[in-house]
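so the lab meeting is tmrw and i was supposed to have these ready like two days ago... anyway. pasting both below. for each one the top line is the aa sequence and the line under it is the structure tokens. i havent really looked at them closely yet so no promises
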Amino acid sequence: MRIIVLLLCAFTSLGAQEYNLLVIPEELKKDAHVVIRENKEDYVINSINNIEIKKSKVWTILKKDGEGAATIALHYDKSTKVDDIKVVTYNAFGKEVSKFSKKDFSDYSNTPSYGLYVDNRILLLKVSSTSFPFTIKLSYTENTSDTVFIGDFHGLDDFNTSVEKSTRTINNKSGIPLRTKVKNSDYGKVNATENGNLYTYTYANIPAIDEEKQSPTISYLSPTVEFSLEKFNLAGKIGDAKDWNSFGKWYYQNLLVPVSTITPDIKNEIASLNLSGSTEEKVRTIFQYMQQKTRYVFVAMGIGGWMPMEVDDVRKKGYGDCKALTNYMRAMLDAAGIPSHYAIIKSDASPLRFDNDFPKMGGNHAILVVPTDKGNIWLENTSQTVAYNHLSYNTTNRNVLAVGDNGIQIIDTPVYPAEKSLEKIHAKIKLKEDKSIDAVTLLKYTGGQYDFNMSYISLAKKEMEDAMKERYSHLRIDKMEVNDFKNDKNEAIISYGLKFNSPDFSKKLGNDLFFGVVPFTDYSINSSDTKRDLPFETKFAFKDDYTIEYEAPEGYKFPEVPKGTEITSEFGSYKIDFQLENNKLIVHRVLSINKGLYPKEKYAQYVDFRKKTTFNDNTKVLISKL
């Protein structure tokens, strides 16, 4: 033991002691897979079309779970150059192990598997180590003419990542006003100072956050500083972002108008549809026509990847990304005399919103909003299977930047109440003396629960049946048959029938049988652990409405009927009741969960509510042999 200590001391006396594992504070190792030892970003805004950036980052990967952080990805394009790349790795004692430079990086087109055309490129280096922990030091410079993008400065990049020190300085020599917006959180605060045109932001000693069930996304939890120049450049296009209207007019004139010419072919396309009826009916006809003839392909070309393809190119080629397909749909509606707005949105599992008072380039997705006398119609244009006027839970309950010739309107997307995110099940179950059941079930899904069933649409029948067996694996289903699977794209309803056999559903009690009354719920998914460090979120409201009819085996009867139960809480409501008709037990069970973001202090109450619903779902019923 003394030899190990002496060797450790010998190593720590060598250079780079600051990268020794032992100098990391213990509180920053807790729940951490990765520790950011030091991050430094120095921005110099020289003019409306030039920003120079120097970046240096040192991080220690403590264990194999953090191995993903060993892949270094540096993005560049025609407007952004990356140089002076240096990478050094160190072992646990802070001793240098290896060095890399730009020539060691692989250079790829930044094209996802579903991509086709991109201007962006990416430099990649995967650093490997035979043991953990190890440390990586990265430094490089960037030079960009695209001043519309000054990246957000986040306190936390990911779950299970702690921060020892992270600093950004911005030296604004351009004379253009720079707006900043600071969002501190319970999980970290930024120290901000200003000295003339020099701004400094520092995070220090931020512990790692361990992701918990139902926790919000890291982008929601992290402290963040946002930046926006009042005047900017994007691929040679000078813009004004002093307010949303100025920014919106620039966006419309520079990014949409040049690619939105309604050609005679597009006019003929619309004429061939023989549109009639209400505005809503015309929009639906055009939308479903567009779905049939196009498919999603990632495209990142033109004005920094923010300009859509030409609408007539989308018509001819039959593909595009969210920008291209949304703008094509907008052009077709325009050709039909129906105004609509190209809408930029932040798609995320937790609702992220644009700030009414902080205009800046942002968002990661485009959809279409069509104003009508009966309310807005919302169109998700990237899917060939999604229903008309339906948005997923990743895009509901937030706002969009609706771009028009007069600027930007900030409009809220819909919030679906529980009744519109429905799972409705009607099941007829025959109980058998050998403990097995034969079940015939009809299922219907709307709203957010419609989204969760869309993955089945593309499956072959056998694949779908296997997927359903896996979904209800707790029933140990022997035979499964899926019938009449339908995706109603007019009303956003998925419905189908299931026929299945479960060989070991009931339990024997002498000559009698007993069983749980709600077979479609897997009780094991509800946690009983009330310990909580993070707020928790129910991402959308939903309602499960089950009617289950049990038929006793011949020679058996239901000796008594359980009492019904009703539970109400701020998290939702629950009701179950029982009726006996002609020796059949009819169970009606309704669970409604409210959408909400709740403080961690309420988690014990939420768990208690779900325990009660699970307890009642697991009510046992006895059937007696005559």
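ok protien two:
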Amino acid sequence: MESFVAIDIETTGLDQNRDAIIEIAAVKFRGNRIEDEWSSLINPNRHVPEFITGLTGIDDAMLRQAPRLRDVTHEVEAFVGEAAIIGHNVRFDVGFLQKQIPFALNEIIDTYELAAVLLPNASRYNLGALGKELGILLPATHRAMDDARVTMAAFNRLFEMARGLPLDLVAEIVRLSEPISWDASYVFREALRAHTKEGVQAKKAKKDSGGWFGDTRHPPLENPEKPRPLDCEEAASILEYGGPFSQYFESYEHRPEQVEMLRVVANALSKGSHLMVEAGNGVGKNFCYFIPSALFAVPNKTRGILFTHTINLQDQFIQKDIPDLRAALNLDLRAAVLKGRANYLCPRRLDNLKHFGPRTADEMRVLAKVMVWQLANQSGDRNEINLNGPVEGEVWLRLSAEDDACTTETCMKRTGGACPFHRAKSAAQSAHLLVVNHALLLSDVSTGSKVLPEYSYLIIDEGHHLESATTNALSFRLTQLDLERMLKEVGGTNAGILGRVLGETHEALRPSDFGLLQQKVNRATDMAFRLEQLNREFFNTVSEFAAYHREGQRPTNYAWQSRVLPATRTLPGWDGVEITWDAAGETLNLLLNALAEIHKGAAELYTEGDDNQEDVIADIR
């Protein structure tokens, strides 16, 4: 193995243009053996903020006699030489150093990029958390030498993890990253080279069999017309001393309020009546509706739906509370969780991104992270992978199953049942208890009961959130960034959906027909470019309108909101809002009409037997 240099700096702040370095450390190593170390405090010729002193322990007095950065550049440059430079969020370090040291020919490796891919379930990726995750005993102290040593140890562990990946997966990551400047690609290239040199038997990445799709071991439940009622006292006895719960839970506490709430819930289920309950903290209300729901659903072979406000609470129910209930009562209770489409990975869209390739380092990182994640995870549930920040969230949206036009039949044909969303939907059909959040309930309401399977009763937990959840779910929200992202996906003649249309149809169409298609794509590209400009103008006008009418108001930490009433339309500046809105809306309609024509042409090719158009059709739709 060649030598590497792990480097770390401390600075007076985060801005490369205004802040300065106060400490540099570098560790030259080969494998686990340290070959040399170098470090120095640096005089920034300015005051060190108190916050930085509190974080690092470095103050003005310590730096007064320290050399300036220009005085040590030759030492740093000589120490690093031609070795690959490793850092955690390394572009921050290199960005400050490159003011004096070019590092033009050095390979750059970021342990953050590696950790994000190789540890897709890690809760955090900062250096201290990464060290703990990897079992590194060295401390990350916000002193440059300590952090450089932790970076070295983290790199070695992550490199071994990369080498341990299946050969075909490593090869695919290398292939996908070749056209992109990505600060993790070097490690995967070296891992592939190591596989090749050692003649390692190629382990294959696990493929999802999709066995749960359309699972017939538990047929879909049917709601009986006359369900058998519960014995409320028998249900309540479960929570009494000597009952199943007191025997199952070691620290069981009998609570009269919990028993009473369970009775009234059991009575409401038996009589099919409405019930509203307010329960304070400490009552243990979850089991007040879990127990009667389970006792009612299982013998009656019916389904109840439990609605919560948050996805985190959904996961708590499925992973902890319901398994405890099943074990305590020795009950053959089937439970499932169903989330919105955007929470599930779409295999077709994942294959599309692999086929056309990522365009940015962010896309490459998320793509590689998802591919590694799939080795151990078959749920495809976004909540089980750490997507760090809004950028990774945007990439996930392009990989998610957020495509209402996708049907079960299409999914079976394309993925053989491997779609996580349709598997979750299939599991929901045979579940006695189905756990969903408020947003999905309201989506079911707004679509005329087309989202959720049939159910005989529902329980709404965290009901105090229902009004705001209703407002959010039954309204439309659009930001400037949302529209920019959609227009970026539409693309143009050489990129995005429109670029793929031309690429996929070039060989299938006669030259004259392809020329007509090019004209349509050019027209759509012009419309998209025009809409991008109008989008900026509209939101700038809205911002100016808001700023004018907020003038003189006391600043707050809350977002400014204004309901558009008839009186609003008479205010100064509103004419500009309407004019820019109308212009953007008109251009948007023209773009949608142009895309509809292109979609129609692709659909005709598909019906004539060109299967390559199926993905294009789905993307335009």
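from a quick look at the 2nd one: The beta strands are 4-11, 21-30, 33-41, 84-87, 108-110, 304-308, 335-337, 433-437, 457-460. The chain has 26 helices and nine strands. will dig more after coffe
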